[in-house]
């Protein structure tokens, strides 16, 4: 089944990342996609958090916008690659200090906010497994996902923890840390 491209109104002055979708689709190959990745320094493999953040800092683009966030009150904030690299490194170090390592599950129960992206990328930098939880889930689906996923660390807000997790905490013995 053929699907149509989503058309978005251009923003004045903004340069699109993908100017010609149809051409990019025709010319796409997995080989060229692999060649576009930097890989970890020293040929140590591939980490998507490095590709998403740190390679931009290493290439001297740290002052550029990595994220633009629009708050509920419509205020716009910008997070640079330098900031995002610092914050995600700090979060990866927090996970290590908690004893979370390769393969350990880290879940987030957050709305779309800078902390969500920091937790995703910091978890991946730590070689842990990231498990997103949608804030609209009720307490039972949140509990089931935390329990079945064997989640050790949960990143959430006080309000979401109180409304979705606190009353079910006794059923989650593997959940060691809330951050």
Automatic annotation (TrEMBL):
The keyword Transport does not apply. Keywords: Acetylation. Residues 56-162 form the AMP-dependent synthetase/ligase domain. Pfam families: AMP-binding (PF00501). InterPro entries: AMP-dep_synth/lig_dom (IPR000873), ANL_N_sf (IPR042099). It comes from the Bacteria. This is AMP-binding protein. It comes from Kitasatospora herbaricolor.
């Amino acid at each position: 089944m053929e699907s149509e491209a989503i058309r978005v109104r251009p923003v004045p002055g903004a340069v699109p990342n993908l100017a010609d979708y149809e051409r990019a689709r025709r010319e796409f190959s997995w080989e060229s996609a692999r060649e576009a990745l930097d890989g970890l320094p020293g040929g140590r493999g591939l980490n998507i958090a490095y590709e998403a953040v740190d390679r931009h800092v290493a290439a001297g683009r740290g002052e550029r916008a990595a994220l633009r966030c629009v708050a509920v009150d419509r205020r716009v904030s910008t997070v640079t690659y330098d900031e995002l690299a610092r914050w995600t490194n700090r979060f990866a170090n927090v996970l290590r200090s908690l004893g979370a390592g390769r393969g350990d599950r880290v879940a987030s129960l957050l709305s779309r906010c800078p902390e969500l992206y920091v937790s995703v990328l910091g978890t991946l930098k730590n070689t842990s497994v990231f498990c997103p939880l949608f804030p609209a889930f009720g307490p039972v689906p949140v509990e089931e996902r935390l329990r079945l996923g064997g989640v050790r660390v949960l990143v959430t807000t006080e309000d979401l923890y109180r409304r979705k997790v606190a009353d079910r905490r006794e059923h989650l013995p593997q959940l060691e840390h809330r951050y």
